[in-house]
Amino acid sequence: MRKNRLPRRTLAALGTVFLLTAPTAAHATAPPPPTAQGLRAFQQSYGLDPTGRVDTATAQLLGAAPDSELRAAFADPSDLGPEQLAHARTVIGVGKGARIPEQGQVIALMTAMQESTFVNYTTPVDNDSLGIFQQRPSMGWGTAKQITHVPTASKSFYGLPSPTKNPGLLQIEGWESMEPGEACQAVQRSAHPGRYAQWERFARDLLEREGPTVDPID
């Protein structure tokens, strides 16, 4: 789970490598390129080259940035970089493939945005948390390889057949009538349950914009 931990100077000195997986081929129809203005502005604010793509240094900073900075940077789905958008589209595609209602897809998008800003962390950010949902091998969510495979991680979150026996969204009784942030927390069991709700509007806009061009992923 993302926390607000390290000052900028410390982060700049870190040498940890984050491997960001390539977009899944199952995305089918490619979306129009995002402007990534928010990501570029975020990079520039930390003295990075504003490429609009998530490299190692950007991933480190996103993982430790306070919520206020992230809300300012990602006010609109077009503020995401192409890697982030590809992972978001995978979450939507898996949901569509399993005929998860749109409300469930919104909940999944809210969760991934809060946990990782759709960065697929293959090196732990907090304890042994990995991937876009910050799932933990030590808590039974699967191996590191499984958790960092975005379609598999998405299936685990939704509660579809996957490597984990942990309850996913579909196993949460009454999730459809819960507040979306409460449903996120019911799956994630976070130490910061109130932080998911801030991304509801963003997630709904993201699904409305991207959903029609995403093919189902089985």
UniProtKB/TrEMBL annotation:
It comes from the Bacteria. Residues 1-28 form the signal peptide. The keyword Signal applies. Pfam families: PG_binding_1 (PF01471). Keywords: Signal. Residues 34-62 form the Peptidoglycan binding-like domain. The keyword Cell wall biogenesis/degradation does not apply. This is Peptidoglycan-binding domain-containing protein. It comes from Streptomyces microflavus.
